[in-house]
Each structure stands twice: as structure tokens, then as C-alpha cells.
UniProtKB/TrEMBL annotation:
Residues 63-94 form the Zn(2)-C6 fungal-type domain. Residues 1-33, 95-123, 226-263 are annotated as: Disordered. Keywords: DNA-binding, Metal-binding, Nucleus, Transcription, Transcription regulation, Zinc. Residues 14-26 have a biased composition (Polar residues). Gene3D superfamilies: Zn(2)-C6 fungal-type DNA-binding domain (4.10.240.10). This is Transcription activator of gluconeogenesis ERT1. The lineage of its organism: Eukaryota, Fungi, Dikarya, Basidiomycota, Agaricomycotina. Transmembrane segments: none annotated.
DNA sequence: TTTATCGGACACTCAATGAC
DNA sequence: TCATTGAGTGTCCGATAAAT
């Protein structure tokens, strides 16, 4: 049986770069996508980087004990999404990592034919990486200041950027107006209902005013039991107003809907 | 049909090693 | 001292089994 109905919306391995994954490719893809299937990537057809090279699979530094035990994808948040989904958030704790052995003798290293390799020609600034073509979407900008969700380290969304690293590109789909199943923004789809309940439009649930890899319903809870939400001045409706009713996540959305108050 | 299990491919870390 | 190598270890994909 295929895995499709699996409770884990994991990225399929088939979407990941087959190991042409020499070091340079590690920085090709923007962060946050590692937890999103490639077919959901917000690149308009024709702009999607081709051939469909898989991005390197990214791993969390430390999976929780539950995910580790289940051999399932975890995330950096505690509780992790999987534990929250399964209602075992209180059991979501970092697994213990063994200490690496020291003093192991290693044989003489062989040199790899001379020079450092590079898959890509040196970037001279005159051309844009194909992935950045997504900025061609009207109204979008790549100059989006990164805002970390309340209570979350910026590192949660990136490969631990270091000082001097180039700015991380976050695709404009985070900013684009959501399109409902009727082709209208939420609340305008003709029946007065939020337009986010069609599974074929699942990607729109990722629309969020700031870059983060979670669907809105996946927004992690803060220690006070509420969930971080974008500031109201960004003009986004409360998440509770644009999510399907009656899902397993409903309770989570409800207790944070009042978190957004116009300022 | 859904959920659980787990083998194994892949990713990551970092001490040992080698070049300068 | 710094860069490179590659073994050790962890993560999690995806196939399969079991449960419902």
C-alpha cells in the first residue's frame, strides 16, 4: 500500500536531489522547503528549476524520542509537529545523543584529485539563480526581512546561517494573496466560507506572512499555551478564519484566534 | 483504509590526518 | 593553524505488516 495517507506529511524522498549533493548544492534551496514536498513548491510552471534535482534531505539536529522511535521526521520545535498531531506533546523530549568515540586511529587519507570541486560555475552576479526567478511574481520581493516567529530561534528555519552568509531567500508565495478553490481570496469565494478546504489547494495553507515551514495549523504553541501569530498589521486574517473546520487541529486554532487583536 | 514498524539509504558531526 | 577526510552516529524515507 502506498504511503500517501500516512499521518506524516513528509517530503517524499523522490523529491530530493540524488546525490549530486556535493557540498555546493546544500545552499541551493531556501530553507523551509525541506519539509514540503517538491510538488507543492510555489514555483509557477516553467519557472520551476529543471531538471527536477532533489534538494538535499535535511535533518533536525536532534529528533525527539517519539520520532526517533518511530523513525519519523521530527522538527526542531518542542513539542514537535508529529507529537502534537498525535497528542503526545508532553512526551516530546529530545533524544539523547551518544558521545562520539575518541582516539580511534585512522589510516592515511587519500587525496581527491587535486582541486576542490564545484558543480556550478562561479556566480558572477550577472545572472540570477533559477530559484530566484520566483520573485518575478507581481508584488513579491526577495528583500523580505526575516522575522522569526515568536518563541522560535531563527535557526529553526535555516541551516544555521553564520555571519557573512548571504541573505536567505524566502519565496514570495509566503506573501502572495491566497487563492481559494473558487479562485477568490478567502471570504470572497462566493459562499462566504474560507476557501481553504480543498485538498488540491493544500499549498495555500502554507501562505504565511513570514517564512516558516509550518502550515498555519501547525503553528507551534508558545509556553503559555497560545500560538504565535503574525502581527495583525500585516493584514492577514486570523488563521482560525481561513482553515477548515472540524479538523483535528481545530482546537489548536481556536485557542489562539483571540491572540490576534488589531493594534 | 489507516496506522505502526523498521531496514537501510542518506545526512551530519567532528576527531584524525595532512598540507602549508 | 587550517583544510580535508571519512568513520561514527543519527535521521527519516518508503516498503511492508498489522490493525481497524
Amino acid at each position: 500500500m502506498p504511503n500517501s495517507p500516512s499521518p506524516e506529511p513528509d517530503e517524499p524522498a523522490s523529491n530530493e536531489s540524488q546525490t549530486t549533493d556535493l557540498q555546493p548544492s546544500m545552499t541551493v534551496h531556501p530553507l523551509g522547503y525541506s519539509s514540503m514536498p517538491m510538488h507543492m513548491y510555489p514555483f509557477p510552471s516553467g519557472i520551476v528549476p529543471t531538471p527536477p534535482t532533489r534538494s538535499k534531505r535535511r535533518q533536525v539536529k536532534n529528533a525527539c524520542t517519539n520520532c526517533q522511535k518511530a523513525c519519523k521526521k521530527c522538527d526542531d520545535a518542542r513539542p514537535c509537529l508529529r507529537c502534537v498531531k498525535y497528542g503526545i506533546a508532553e512526551e516530546c523530549v529530545d533524544s539523547h545523543r551518544k558521545e562520539r568515540k575518541k582516539g580511534i586511529k585512522r589510516g592515511p587519507y587519500k587525496k581527491r584529485d587535486g582541486k576542490p570541486f564545484s558543480l556550478d560555475p562561479p556566480y558572477d552576479g550577472s545572472t540570477q539563480p533559477s530559484i530566484q526567478m520566483a520573485t518575478a511574481i507581481p508584488g513579491a520581493s526577495s528583500a523580505i526581512p526575516f522575522i522569526s516567529p515568536v518563541g522560535f530561534s531563527p535557526n529553526l528555519f535555516g541551516p544555521y546561517p553564520k555571519p557573512g552568509d548571504p541573505a536567505i531567500y524566502y519565496p514570495p508565495f509566503y506573501l502572495a494573496a491566497p487563492i481559494s478553490a473558487h479562485g477568490l481570496p478567502p471570504h470572497q469565494n462566493g459562499d462566504g466560507e474560507p476557501g481553504y478546504h480543498h485538498p488540491h489547494f493544500y499549498p495555500t495553507t502554507f501562505l504565511t506572512p513570514y517564512p516558516q515551514p509550518y502550515a498555519p495549523y501547525m503553528m507551534p504553541h508558545r509556553p503559555d499555551g497560545q500560538v504565535a501569530l503574525p502581527p495583525a498589521h500585516l493584514g492577514f486574517p486570523p488563521i482560525s478564519a481561513r482553515l477548515p473546520q472540524g479538523t483535528g487541529q481545530q482546537d489548536q486554532r481556536d485557542d489562539r484566534s483571540e491572540e490576534v487583536t488589531p493594534s
